[in-house]
Amino acid sequence: MKKNAQFLIENLGGKEIPGSHSLTVRYKTLVNFAKVFGITDPKYVGSEEEGIVACRAFANHYLIKSLYTLLLGMKLEQDGKERDFILNLGKLLHASQKYNWDGCVDIKPGDRLTAKGKWGKVWLVESNMIFFAQLIVDVKNQNDEMVCKATVSAAVRPGGY
Hints:
Elements: H1 2-12, E1 21-24, H2 27-36, H3 42-45, H4 59-72, E2 75-78, E3 81-84, E4 92-100, E5 112-125, E6 130-140, E7 146-156
Antiparallel strand pairs: 1-5, 2-3, 4-7, 5-6, 6-7
């Protein structure tokens, strides 16, 4: 395990995560998501003709889905063999997320969102052998406008990396 953790620490920090993940935002999805949180403001749950926008919590919907898609398909070469980043999905934990909305535009129904990421800080907590990694994710719309900047931390328990 320690060898795998050291390999990841040496090979991930600051590097781009291969690929991207895209999805199209649907009006009904925006409204239903806002209603789950008890939001009644017509800005977020009004009619489609009124031009609603996504509530900030909607970032949880597309960001985590994008990260799982990007990480689950990620391959690395270790000791001359290709391996998955995550060796056991059951050991992957979502540890935290932080959003930065500076310079971001609102998300609207019909927007096509694309998430791309890079690795931030990666480290191992040796006392319990849990591997941590920060993922820096930028999400843009079809006009190449930033809609969300996020830092997500993942934890991988022993046997998962």
